[in-house]
Specification:
67 residues; mainly beta; 13% helix
Length: 67
Amino acid sequence: MNYKSNMAKSPNGATLGERITIRGGYGLHYKAGKKQDDLTVEQLVECVSGRKVKEIIYFPQSESSLK
């Protein structure tokens, strides 16, 4: 897998960070200047929504409307 394919991008093409695995789940390595952090998907949703997240349930790829 090359470096560019491992980057998470917004629908408009802005780079969000690098996709990583954290404790067997999905995550994001975020870097801004000298600061960096590894966030699980649940932590990322909590940062955006301001609410605690117990779990995220994924649909099978074939049923997902987002590609």
